[in-house]
Design goal:
162 residues, mainly alpha, Ferritin, two-stranded parallel sheet, 5 helices
Length: 162
């Protein structure tokens, strides 16, 4: 009789390749940067529809913070090291810098919308390679893309005219 049992030494957990690690690291720093820029905008937005935009920015900040945590924890699950240090984020993010000082609501809508779409571009840019190696992680990227695009639509609608 032949056995199909494996031995303890035959069993290994899935480990991310260097490419998968690099892709997730880029997503991580851009999500962290989006969180930080969203908070900067939240603190310094002024003008018409202030309260609505102020609250929408908090929703974005919460989503980006939770998303970065999900990505970092997924990296650790795959035996990759997550680097969310401020120096690393500042040196490697792909998002444009956020301007200082107070900004009016119309300008903040455009600035934040652009940064959300920049983050989505990062997610879409790594998606296919991530999916080829680890479809479970690609599912996380799908959820982040869906959520960010919805937030971009909601925020950008503040400036939409018909």
């Amino acid at each position: 009789m032949t056995t199909t049992r494996r031995t303890e030494s035959d069993i290994q957990g899935f480990q991310a390749s260097p490419q998968l690690q690099a892709s997730l690291q880029q997503v991580l720093v851009d999500m962290i940067e989006l969180h930080l820029q969203g908070k900067q905008a939240h603190w310094n937005v002024v003008g018409s529809n202030f309260r609505d935009l102020h609250l929408q920015l908090d929703e974005l900040v919460d989503f980006a913070r939770e998303g970065s945590d999900t990505i970092a924890e997924r990296m650790r699950t795959l035996y990759a090291v997550a680097d969310g240090r401020s120096d690393t984020v500042a040196a490697t993010t792909t998002l444009p810098a956020f301007p200082p000082y107070e900004r009016n609501t119309t300008e903040v809508v455009d600035l934040i919308g652009t940064r959300i779409y920049a983050t989505v571009d990062t997610l879409r840019g790594v998606h296919d390679a991530v999916d080829a190696e680890d479809p479970s992680t690609a599912d996380i990227l799908h959820q982040l893309i869906d959520g960010l695009e919805k937030l971009a639509w909601l925020i950008r609608s503040e400036n939409h005219k018909v």
